[in-house]
Specification:
By secondary structure, the protein is α+β, with helices and mostly antiparallel strands. It folds into two domains: 59 residues, no CATH class; 93 residues, Alpha-Beta Complex (H-NOX domain), CATH 3.90.1520.10. 48% of the residues lie in helices and 19% in strands. The chain is built from eight helices and six strands; from the N terminus they run βααβαααααββαββ. The strands form two sheets. A four-stranded antiparallel sheet has the order 3-4-6-5. It has a two-stranded antiparallel sheet with strand order 1-2. A hairpin with a 3-residue loop joins β3 and β4. α1 crosses α2, α1 packs across α4 and α4 packs across α8. The chain is globular, with a radius of gyration of 16 Å. The N and C termini lie far apart (45 Å).
Length: 176
């Protein structure tokens, strides 16, 4: 199995949430344990996926695993100036960019989309890098609905950790 990597922008997004919404001790404790210096993380550099796994484990152990979904949601919506522009986009346009956006942030796995009358089915092959990854994806997809002001739902209908060949998310929304 090859080494998996994640862009620093994803790692920084998780750490930014930890520092902003919890007492700084939670994030600082994680950074102390790992030796990671937030200011040294480059948004464009690749980092071993173990860093993100470590963040997931730390969040689950010190807070609750439900926060991984909340952090996934936050990182999608906290895009700086881009989040302002995305608000004028619709969910379908944003989801069309999901496979490319994923490939820019992770060097493993693949995302594909099937369109339905009620929304979309996102198929994510080999993207479940730990037992918490799907919670993060669920939160991210819910964040996409929110940032585009779309009323809808997201449901995971298959998961690789349960022995399925891929993780599958069903996103439904009402057409405006």
């Amino acid at each position: 199995m090859s080494v998996k990597h994640v862009r620093g922008s994803v790692v920084k997004g998780y750490l930014k949430f930890m520092k902003r919404f919890w007492d700084r001790d939670v994030a600082e404790e994680f950074l102390d344990i790992t030796g990671i210096k937030t200011e040294k993380i480059s948004e464009i550099e690749w980092y071993d996926i173990s860093v993100l796994k470590g963040i997931h484990r730390h969040v689950a152990d010190t807070k609750d695993e439900k926060y991984i979904k909340i952090i996934g949601n936050y990182t999608v919506k906290d895009l700086g100036v881009l989040s302002y522009l995305v608000r004028f986009s619709d969910i379908k346009s944003l989801l069309k960019k999901a496979p490319k956006s994923y490939a820019q942030a992770y060097d493993f796995g693949k995302v594909s989309i099937e369109w339905t009358d009620q929304g979309a089915i996102l198929k994510m092959k080999d993207t479940s890098f730990d037992e918490y990854a799907c919670l993060g994806w669920l939160g991210a997809f819910e964040g996409m609905l929110e940032i585009t002001h779309t009323i809808g739902t997201v449901k995971e209908i298959e998961c690789q950790k349960d022995g399925n060949p891929r993780c599958v998310f069903e996103i439904k929304w009402k057409n405006r």
